[in-house]
């Protein structure tokens, strides 16, 4: 028996999220079927953390091939009513190179990374990874993370380092422990990086990331980094409700609409 949980909007489309009372597989099949009806051609990957059990996070974007993720240590997490709580050091990763994401972003020379999260505290550093397309702590395409009370972005362009530095930060004290809608956008035509929090523009720069995207074949990882050799932790703790990646810089109206729609 299926029961309706919520309706979620992403840019130009909406999808009904269903929960199965007797079958997690039935739940995922129904969610994927609905999300396949999406009409936003720029959505590449979507994770709604609606599984409610298990260690697999399904890509419900409807964009083939699905890039499903797996929780490395499920004992470090627990499912909540509207997402997943990351309680201790683990990572959620694709275990294969995220080719459809890396290739789409590089081809479009543009990116939007969107997340609904609730940080455990404002003292996480490293930076603590929320989303990363990377090989290890030194080589990456993109990262959205937390550095104490600031949100941090790294982006590998032809004028930046292979680690995506110098990094781009919001102002001090912009991270809170409340549920937060975080969106980063950039495209080659404007060369403008933006960060939105809860539908509002909080940081903008036309000089931070210049040139073209310079992307390699890396994994998609959430809430941590992989292949760390220097002993410095990069794991992120908190609740995560949604992650979406687009190969276009969403405009302010679209971002505000997504925020108003909730997670």
Task: Give the key terms.
8-stranded antiparallel β-sheet, disordered N terminus, mainly beta, Jelly Rolls, 40% strand, 263 residues, globular
Describe the structure.
The chain is mostly beta strands and 263 residues long. It has one domain: Jelly Rolls, CATH 2.60.120. It contains 3 helices and 18 strands. The chain has helices spanning 24-35, 99-108, 252-261; strands at 2-10, 13-20, 43-47, 56-57, 69-71, 77-80, 83-86, 92-97, 110-119, 128-134, 140-147, 150-155, 168-169, 180-187, 193-197, 200-205, 219-222, 238-246. Strands 3, 6, 7, 9, 14, 15, 16 and 18 form an 8-stranded antiparallel β-sheet that branches. β11 and β12 form a beta hairpin. The longest helix is centred in the first third of the chain and has 12 residues, at 24-35. The chain is globular and about 45 Å long. It starts with a strand and ends with a helix.
């Amino acid at each position: 028996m299926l029961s309706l949980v919520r309706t979620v909007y992403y840019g130009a489309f909406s999808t009904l999220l269903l929960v199965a009372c007797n079958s997690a597989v039935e739940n995922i099949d129904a969610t994927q079927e609905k999300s396949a009806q999406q009409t936003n051609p720029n959505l590449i990957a979507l994770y709604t953390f609606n599984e409610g059990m298990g260690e697999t996070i399904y890509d419900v974007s409807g964009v083939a091939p699905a890039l499903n993720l797996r929780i490395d240590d499920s004992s470090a997490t627990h499912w909540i009513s509207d997402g997943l709580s990351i309680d201790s050091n683990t990572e959620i990763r694709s275990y294969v190179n995220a080719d459809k994401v890396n290739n789409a972003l590089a081809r479009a020379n543009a990116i939007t990374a969107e997340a609904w999260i609730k940080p455990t505290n404002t003292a996480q550093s490293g930076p603590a990874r929320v989303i990363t397309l990377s090989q290890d702590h030194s080589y990456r395409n993109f990262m959205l993370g937390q550095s104490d009370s600031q949100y941090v972005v790294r982006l590998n362009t032809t004028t930046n380092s292979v680690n995506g530095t110098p990094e781009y930060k919001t102002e001090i004290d912009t991270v809170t422990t409340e549920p937060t809608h975080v969106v980063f956008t950039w495209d080659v035509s404007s060369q403008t990086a933006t960060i939105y929090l809860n539908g509002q523009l909080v940081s903008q720069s036309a000089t931070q990331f210049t040139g073209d995207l310079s992307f390699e074949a890396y994994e998609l990882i959430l809430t941590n980094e992989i292949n760390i050799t220097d002993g410095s932790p990069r794991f992120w703790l908190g609740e995560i409700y949604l992650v979406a990646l687009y190969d276009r810089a969403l405009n302010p109206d679209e971002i505000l609409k997504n925020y108003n729609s909730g997670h």
